[in-house]
Amino acid sequence: MRRARDPFFWGLFSAGGMLAALLLPALFLIVAVAAPLGWFGMTAHVDWLALVGNPLLRLGLFGLLFLAFFHAAHRFRYTLYDGMQLYHLDALISVLTYGVATVLTLIAAVVLATAG
Amino acid sequence: MSPQPRSPAQHVSDPIYPEAANPKYTRHHPRWHRRRIPIFWWLRKWVYTKFILRELTSQPVMYAALLILLHVWIVGRGPEAYETFVEWLRHPLLVALHLFVLGGLLFHTITWLNLAPKALVLRVGERRIPDVLVLAAHYAGWILVSAAIFWLLRGG
After folding, report:
1. What are the distances in angstroms from CA B25 to CA B3, B28, B104?
2. Minimum CA–CA partner of B69 in chain A
3. Considering its fold, how many domains does chain A have in total?
4. What ipTM score was computed for the predicted complex, to two decimals?
5. Residues B1-26: pLDDT tens digits?
6. Which residues of chain B make contact with A39, given a CB cutoff of 8 A?
7. Where do the structural domains in chain B lie, given as residue ranges?
8. Within a 13 Å sphere around the CA of B82, how many CA atoms are in the beta-carbon half?
9. Which CATH number fits the domain that encloses residue A104?
């Protein structure tokens, strides 16, 4: 049972890792730092409503967030497993990490579905 | 002659169990024979530290995803909520934290893309496409995607 599930989570980890690598530095730099502080000629007064109103962008953002959450969950699971040597707690750690990713994905789905 | 009961902490040399010569060996508690690895084993060598730092980039990735989601939610709450949020983002402590998080994100990107030639072995006929080309294609893709995001969110 456990072996059968692992390739599935590894696939999410891999896809999320690639999307996070390509998209997150630029997105985070702009949203969290550059736009609020007006760096690189950017401004906080972007027409965010128009961007958020675009259903394709919302769908794409949902895909990024969903995969990024499961990427982080999978990686953190093995950080605890190998780094902290919590081998005997593997079942509990898996439930917690993937559980948090599932809850956050559901929250993201609700926020993005109602943001238009 | 009655058989001698074996003590759990018997340390004498034993012809049947020669490893019992090890003073730490105790037959009835084999778990004690394992070597304990210190919890900060990964600080001993830079490659190990780099490996753990790479694994810990899961936290900046998680933080960045959550902040972007929070941003979308705040935008939907109206201009006043958005202004308050932007004021928060301008606080020097948050700016410092976010630059630190950005460092983690960049570390994830660089370590992830550097593994691409190992994960992706492409061949044209008999010949394998050199690692440098696979690497360059991934970095070019990253730069293009980042430029597109800057263009999309440029505002003004």
Report:
1. 22, 9, 45
2. A108
3. 1
4. 0.90
5. 455 555 555 555 555 665 556 666 66
6. none
7. 53-101, 115-120+129-156
8. 17
9. 1.20.1300.10
